[in-house]
Design brief:
The complex is a heterodimer of chains A (about 625) and B (about 100).
Chain A: H1 28-32, E1 41-46, E2 66-67, H2 87-96, E3 113-118, H3 126-133, E4 142-145, E5 147-148, H4 161-173, E6 181-185, H5 200-203, E7 207-213, E8 231-234, E9 244-247, E10 257-261, H6 264-281, H7 287-297, E11 309-310, E12 316-317, H8 328-336, E13 345-348, E14 352-358, E15 365-371, H9 373-377, E16 383-394, E17 401-406, E18 412-416, E19 428-435, E20 445-453, E21 462-474, H10 478-491, H11 521-555, H12 557-560, H13 566-571, H14 575-581, H15 588-591, H16 598-607, H17 619-622, H18 626-629
Parallel strand pairs in A: 1-3, 1-4, 2-3, 4-6, 6-7, 7-8
Antiparallel strand pairs in A: 9-10, 11-12, 13-21, 14-21, 15-20, 16-19, 16-21, 17-18, 17-20
Helix pairs in contact in A: 2-6, 3-4, 6-8, 7-8
Chain B: H1 2-11, E1 16-21, H2 30-43, E2 47-51, E3 58-62, H3 70-86, E4 90-95, E5 102-103
Antiparallel strand pairs in B: 1-3, 1-4, 2-3
Classes of the chains: A alpha/beta (about 625), B alpha+beta (about 100).
């Protein structure tokens, strides 16, 4: 029943695929129930957002926006010679393009507000990233990041110290303590045999890592695989397949609309939009709730290349597709009835010093660590979410190393895939790999790290110097997880998706943003000028009053009749001004002509009603008393 | 102010450091931390450009403006590194370098 007059909406197959029904994000039913992201703000951290284009302007949130490249509040992209700064605007359109404006397209969460943080159009440092990740974090709910380290198949990089700290701070203090939601694109290095476990943003436990599939549900040529991939959603594929239709900038050659947005950049904002829909129906979902709901509701589908494996908790995961395809209907219905997961529990093993050689394939080095019941007693950790392994390995050709982690259940994760392009001679220095493939499994038991050298060059052997295992999870038991799975399936009919059903939400924390309002130099200058003007005006005015009083005294005006400045008072626009310049006792009593100057009497009694005029007195008694009278 | 820090300075080729100050008295007030940051920055021959976003106790120290020869810059770097490394209030510090990030 949903109809929009936006001319490109019929081509937005990812929202409503009429050519191949079902191959879309299944969002129209959610919209029909008035779930459009209302009350949620998504911020696109990118090269800017052209917030004046028709499809963005009505939903634009200036409060959540900032330009870190120019250090001002306006994230408007700057045109460059390569016409390259349309990226953020395209991502923003996917999320919140305005419907029914007869222009271009529609966003997934078209009722949400969209902000922009411009940070990619210039030199970037760790401290700038840290600022970006927490910028307006009580206003912005979801941070959509369609960027990362180079996907050239040889880079190993991620957030540095401050970026990591900001991600952690964001999930703890952002969104009134429910935690900022960081959505990141998994990477476009498929052609370079890259893998998103070498990207620290994708690897982070604080992010939602989103990959791409094409219209046919297959992994596109550009997509990367990894064990930390949470889920996938649609994007463009090869030339024969359709890309994502979205808003575009209208600067330079832009028209305000494009049919050619693609890459994992196009997938992550769709996920961000779907999460906005979830937060509308359940605003108190924590960052971990969002991750859980994705794990519980993503759809495993038929793809023989995907190599799905089902873990002990019943979740199927593929290095290509994560836990599967995001489905807006399932996400929103699950969110509606979701009660928060227990607090995050973790376990960190000692630093395990090995100094063992890494043999060449088909042989391998296998190291073990047993996590006992006693080890987990303190934290209460029972079932797993993320599992991380930090390794230090020397090797003359880093890309020849292959690392597999086996959870106690036997579930295998290829945490370190070989990369043919990576010939770095320095190996890994405390690099952290992570996997989500053991989600929901019991934490206790033996973890096996298996490393081998798959290189075919006769090089020096690598050495595993040390490694450390970190487990993240909760006190949920396997039974709790099964119960939650059953509960969610019962909600998928949509029976709770109406305004009459609402679970209570705890109040959020009041966390002030330190940089709320700062006085800019211009504001300060204006205030100083206004202040100076006020001082001078006051001095001038006081002088004028004093001088005029002196004049009156010297001319004996008060003895001749009504105070000569009385007419001036009458002309005064301001009663307060009149009060200051008026004698409290008017001149009506001076010569008994009050009947001719009724204004004096009226004003006097109005302004100072408690002061009655003295009775008529002979003029000589008043001589020399003008100061008292006035 | 903190937002201004990194880029304006690095954009012009200046040096900058992220510094995490140790809060010896536990939860110290922001004001006194800032005062301490000013003092540490001054000791290192740098200028405190303000707190880094929402990260309490983290400050950006930048090289004072002005044109310098390469040798002067290197001497300034070494001096700053030495001061920050031995200062008891500095828990951690890191010279800010440019990161390479790509749109996807």
């Amino acid at each position: 029943s949903i109809h929009f007059n936006d001319p490109k909406y019929p081509q937005q197959w990812h929202l409503n695929n009429r050519r191949s029904p079902g191959r879309d994000i299944n969002v129209t039913g959610v919209w029909e129930r008035n779930v459009t992201g209302r009350g949620v703000t998504v911020v696109v951290v990118d090269d800017g957002v052209e917030h004046t284009v028709q499809d963005i302007a009505p939903n634009y949130s200036p409060e959540g926006s900032y330009d870190l490249n120019s250090n001002d509040p306006d994230p408007m992209p700057h045109p460059d010679e390569e016409n390259g700064n349309h990226h953020g605007t395209r991502c923003a359109g996917e999320i919140a393009a305005v419907p029914n404006n007869s222009f271009c397209a529609v966003g997934v969460a078209y009722g949400s507000r969209i902000a922009g943080i411009r940070v990619l159009d210039g030199p970037l440092t760790d401290s700038m990233e840290a600022v970006a990740f927490n910028k307006h974090y009580q206003i912005n709910d979801i941070y959509s990041c369609s960027w990362g380290p180079d996907d050239d198949g040889k880079t190993v990089d991620g957030p540095h110290q401050l970026g990591k700290a900001a991600l952690q701070h964001g999930v703890m203090a952002g969104r009134q303590g429910f935690g900022s939601i960081f959505v990141v694109a998994s990477g476009n290095g498929g052609q370079h045999n890259d893998n998103c476990n070498y990207d620290g943003y994708a690897n982070s436990i604080y992010t939602v890592t989103i990959g791409a599939v094409d219209e046919e549900g297959r992994m596109p040529f550009y997509a990367e695989e990894c064990a930390s991939m949470l889920a996938v959603t649609f994007s463009g594929g090869d030339k024969m397949l359709r890309s994502i239709v979205t808003t575009d900038w209208d600067l330079q050659k832009g028209t305000g609309c494009t049919e050619g947005h693609t890459g994992t950049s196009a997938a992550a904002p769709l996920a961000a939009g779907m999460i906005a829909l979830m937060l509308q129906v359940r605003p108190c979902l924590t960052w971990r709730d969002v991750q859980h709901i994705i794990v519980f509701t993503a759809i495993q589908y038929e793809d023989h290349h995907a190599d799905w494996l089902t873990n002990e908790a019943g979740f199927s995961h593929s290095h290509q597709h994560g836990f599967g395809l995001l489905n807006a209907w399932r996400l929103v219905n699950a969110a509606k009835i979701w009660t928060s997961v227990p607090y995050l529990a973790s376990y960190v093993s000692p630093m395990l010093k090995e100094n063992k050689a890494v043999p060449r394939s088909p042989h391998s080095l296998e190291v073990l660590w047993n996590v006992s019941r006693t080890d987990l007693e303190m934290s209460g950790l029972k079932t797993l979410e993320h599992v991380a392994v930090t390794v230090s390995i020397t090797h003359p050709r880093r890309g020849s190393l292959e690392l597999k982690l086996f959870c106690p259940s036997g579930m295998m994760s290829l945490i370190g895939a070989p990369r043919s392009m990576d010939s770095d001679p320095n190996g890994f220095n405390a690099w952290t790999f992570s996997t989500v493939r053991c989600w929901g499994e019991r934490a206790r038991g033996v973890y096996r790290l298996v490393i081998r050298d798959v290189g075919d060059e006769p090089l020096q052997m690598g050495i595993l110097q040390q490694w450390q295992l970190t487990l993240y999870g909760s006190m949920w038991s396997p039974v709790d997880i099964k119960d939650r799975q059953s509960l969610l399936e019962s909600a998928m009919s949509g029976k709770y998706l109406h305004d009459g059903f609402t679970l209570p939400c705890p109040p959020g924390l009041k966390i002030p943003e330190e940089d709320g309002y700062t006085i800019t130099p211009n504001t300060l200058k204006t205030l100083v000028l206004v202040g100076c003007f006020s001082v001078f005006w006051t001095i001038y005015y006081m002088l004028e009053v004093c001088l005029s009083q002196r004049n009156k005294a010297s001319t004996h005006g008060c003895r001749k009749g009504c105070c000569p400045w009385a007419p001036r008072r009458q002309n005064s626009k301001d009663a307060g001004t009149a009060l200051e310049s008026m004698p409290l006792c008017s001149s009506k009593d001076l010569d008994g002509v009050d009947s001719e100057h009724g204004d004096c009497t009226t004003a006097s009694s109005f302004l100072a009603p408690e002061l009655d005029c003295p009775p008529h007195q002979p003029p000589d008694l008043l001589q020399g008393k003008s100061g008292q009278i006035c | 102010l903190s937002e201004a820090g990194g880029l304006d300075i690095l954009g012009t080729g200046g040096l900058s450091w992220a510094v995490h100050l140790d809060s010896l008295e536990g939860e110290r007030k922001e004001e006194s931390l800032t005062q301490q940051a000013d003092a540490v920055a001054q000791a290192a021959g740098l200028v405190n450009a303000g707190r880094i976003g929402e990260l309490q106790g983290h400050y950006l120290f930048v090289q004072p403006t002005g044109h310098r020869q390469a040798m002067e810059v290197e001497a300034m770097r070494q001096q700053a590194e030495a001061v920050l490394a031995r200062h008891e209030a500095v828990r951690w510090h890191s010279e800010q370098t440019l990161l390479k990030r790509a749109k996807r």
